[in-house]
Amino acid sequence: MPELPEVEHARGYLARAIEGKKITATKVHDARIAKGVTKLAGRQVLSVERKGKWLKMPLDDGRAIFGHLGMTGHWTRRAAGDPPVRFERARLDFGAVSMRYLDARLFGRIVVAKTLPAWDELGPDPLADGIDVQRLHDRLSRTKRTVKETLMDQSVLAGVGNIQAIEALWHARILPRRPSKKVTLQEARAIAKGITWSIKRSLAAQTEEELTYVEEGGDNPFKIYGRAKEPCPRCKTTLVRSIIGGRGTVHCPGCQR
Ligand SMILES: [Zn+2]
């Protein structure tokens, strides 16, 4: 499932293919996920930006194409004459280059608008903005939720999802179920370090041009995500799976407190 590192990968992929180019044609195969994508011919894509898990492609008319990959979204480059790809939901053509948006499970979105509340409400991006430890600690202390749920709140830090939260909390040696309020400033610093470590590790693991998600049969590059019942890579205690806030979680009962 795409989180910050995967969306950053998609951003670079899109930027290399279409930044500065003019849209020559569009086609929407599934209107449930693409809004306002018609009538874009002639518009130029000025840049490809990312905040958290959202992509933003500003156009030369003041609007932008906003994109979210949902759970299974992919952008893939084809030639304009190529037939539709499996699960293709929309396409943007730039002369001979055709960018196809594929989404098996339809949780993704493409929206053309001047502004988007979902983008405006995002908190700082850990990669682009860095992590302000004091602010993170303040946000953690103001909620009754578990630390893992708070980290996944996109207004706290944009782009941290289930996988990055699991990996970062393991790195910081903190139990995902710990009440946010009980995290000290020093522990918040360890969590911030864990998030940065985890994101950079995931970015470095993406060596293919196109994304493959672990859930779709890609390699598992993670330390503990998807590894319940395996030994902890740090202390060898058996990793445990549980559910927190409706999401599957993995932690080490040996070295996370
Ligand atoms: Zn351990």
How much is the average pLDDT?
96
How do the strands of the widest beta sheet line up side by side?
Answer: 2-9-5-4-3
Distance between the termini: 27 Å
Bound molecules: zinc ion
Number of strands: 11
Query: Could you spell the SSE succession in H and E letters?
Result: HEEEEEEEEEHHHHHEE
- Residue fraction in strands: 15-25%
Number of distinct helices: 6
Q: How much helicity do the residues have?
A: 10-25%
Category from helices, strands and their pairing: alpha+beta
Q: Enumerate the spans where pLDDT stays under 50 for 5 or more consecutive residues.
A: none
Shape by Cα distribution: elongated
Biggest sheet details: 5 strands, mixed
C-alpha Rg, in Å? 19 Å
Keywords:
257 residues; alpha+beta; five-stranded mixed β-sheet; four-stranded antiparallel β-sheet; 6 helices; 11 strands; 21% strand; binds zinc ion
Task: Summarize this structure briefly.
The chain is an alpha+beta fold and 257 residues long.
What does this protein look like?
- This protein has 257 residues and is α+β, with helices and mostly antiparallel strands.
- Helix content is 25%, strand content 21%.
- It contains six helices and eleven strands.
- The chain has helices at residues 4-18, 117-120, 133-141, 147-151, 162-171, 185-205, and strands spanning 25-28, 34-35, 49-51, 54-58, 64-68, 73-79, 88-94, 97-103, 109-113, 240-244, 247-251.
- Strands 2-9-5-4-3 form a five-stranded mixed β-sheet, covered by helices on one side.
- Strand 10 and strand 11 (247-251) form a beta hairpin.
- The longest helix is centred in the C-terminal third of the chain and has 21 residues, at 185-205.
- The radius of gyration is 19 Å and the shape is elongated.
- The two termini are 27 Å apart.
- The mean pLDDT is 96.
- Zinc ion is lined by residues 232, 234-235, 237, 252, 254-255.
